[in-house]
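Ticket #263: bound-state structure for adenosine-5'-triphosphate.
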Amino acid sequence: MIETITIVSGHGKDGTPEAVDQLELRMGDVVSIVGPTGSGKTTLINDIELFADGTTPTGRRVLINGAAPPDEYRENPANHPIALITQHTTFLSDLPVGEFLATHARIRSKTERDVEALLEETLEFANQLTGEPIQTEMRMTELSGGQTRALLIADATIICDTPIVLLDEVENAGIHRTRALELLRRRRKIFIFVTHDPRIALLSDYRIVMRGGKIADVLYTDAAERAYAHEVSKLDDALCILRDKIRHGERLTGHLLEVFACN
Ligand SMILES: Nc1ncnc2c1ncn2[C@@H]1O[C@H](COP(=O)(O)OP(=O)(O)OP(=O)(O)O)[C@@H](O)[C@H]1O
Ligand SMILES: [Mg+2]
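RESOLUTION: The complex was predicted; output attached.
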């Protein structure tokens, strides 16, 4: 059973050490990684996914339960405890959604009945995250950005069911983020989001701040920020309404503040 991942720090692009000697992530933690473009966010999650052992460009090491990860993680992909959802998702497969999920579920489960149950649960989960429902007969390549993200998150959480899930950049994907975090928090996993989204950052337990390729700070969400989170969500909902109106070819009428007031 995985209880902790430890990032034993390395160095930034200029060779200077990171701000913390090591960072321990515990089961149940929801973590954000923030930082400007090129600051090393993707590199950090790649280090985690690879179980870096000091030989990547950052010099970091990643430990599981305080020790070097067991070889079985590397030897058998089915035992790998991390699901990574990358920044760029293009599908080579043109399979219908149902077949894609079923193929994946068969690798993980023993009976056909398990496969069907997993498939159903995964689709239901995904459809709680996206405004535009996904159907089993849709082709993978036909899905919108939001639907793709929702499906991949559901697949990682339910079919892969790995104890650690890494997500590189979820914000622009048109998924219900507050809902997603609520649902994810019900599962005992470590979720790590690369994000610039204040909504996700403030709903996280803490955020890792990247600068120049290194961990520059670790900020725990405090009571003042938690209070902010509610206001930020209202603001963000209002912006979503405006975005939807624009998308549907409507004009923005009335006073802007009314949009905010109706939230
Ligand atoms: N500690 C480091 N030492 C050396 N090179 C690094 C280090 N960290 C990151 N890099 C390199 O810097 C470049 C940018 O890093 P990365 O892609 O991780 O940034 P990012 O924060 O994910 O950017 P974006 O917001 O554009 O996705 C990459 O080429 C990466 O290999
Ligand atoms: Mg990146």
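RESOLUTION NOTES: The longest strand covers residues 214-220.
TICKET STATUS: resolved
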